[in-house]
Amino acid sequence: MAEVLDTAALLFWPVERIAQGICAESQMQELRRLSEPRFLLVESNPPELMNVDDAALQEAREAASRTGDLNGLSPVDIEVLALALHLQAVLHSDDYRLQNIARNEGLEVKPVNTKGIEKVWKWQLRCTGCRAVTDVESKSDELPDCQICGSPQQLKRA
Ligand SMILES: [Zn+2]
After folding, report:
1. How remote is the C-alpha of 122 from its chain's centroid?
2. 30 Rama sector, left if φ>0, alpha if ψ -120 to 50, beta otherwise
3. Over the stretch 12-47, which tens digit does the pLDDT of each residue have?
4. How far is the centre of ligand 1, averaged over its atoms, from the C-alpha of 141 (Å)?
5. What's the count of helices (H) and strands (E) in the chain, helices before strands?
6. Which of 62, 119, 123, 146 has the fewest CB atoms found within 10 Å of its own CB?
7. Distance, CA 150 to ligand 1 centroid (Å)?
8. What does the DSSP assignment read for 95-134?
9. What is the pLDDT of residues 123-145, one digit of tens each?
């Protein structure tokens, strides 16, 4: 099973273990910005580096939109996600958004350094007037008014 590592793994894992994983090429640049010594160490025994094509990036953005997590993701995050989705790999990440999206797409997710989230987030609209609650598929910036009483609604994590 292919294992895709996010940048936290590049920072914290033993280099021998990193060498067995797969990363996006842009992560090495990110790692260099975060820690030059660490970058030099990882570069001496690197993971498999892959580039993702535009179609895979688009798929990743769509997957992120489905859980409402797209806004919080960096370009590097999108590449990591695209790689994991494309390879149907195990994703090693501490980023809750990436974990959430990958789980929602049926991928196995493992935390790097912290405990993983228990389950995929669900979102609900709650009316500020009559308190009616509606399940929504994903987080979105456009919040419709309540269909029952017409009051504004708020988005909550269910
Ligand atoms: Zn209402």
Report:
1. 15
2. alpha
3. 888 999 999 999 999 999 999 999 999 999 999 999
4. 19
5. 7, 8
6. 119
7. 6
8. -HHHHHHHHHTT--EE-SSSPPPSS---EEEEESSS--EE
9. 788 999 999 998 886 666 678 89
Q: Which residues surround ligand 1, an ion (CB under 5 A)?
A: 127, 129-130, 132, 146, 148-149, 151
Q: Which amino acid is at 9?
A: A
Q: Indicate the SS3 state at residue 22.
A: strand
- Quote the tokens at residue 110: 């493992």
In the chain the first and final C-alpha atoms are separated, in Å, by 33
| Ligand 1 centroid – CA 152 distance (Å) | 8
CATH number for the region 3-110 comes to 3.40.50.1010
Measured in degrees and rounded to the nearest 5, phi and psi for residue 5 equal -110, 130
Q: How far is CA 129 from the centre of its chain?
A: 34
Between the CA of 122 and the centroid of ligand 1 the distance, in Å, is: 20
Q: What are phi and psi of 23, to 5 degrees?
A: -135, 160
Between the CA of 119 and the centroid of ligand 1 the distance, in Å, is 29
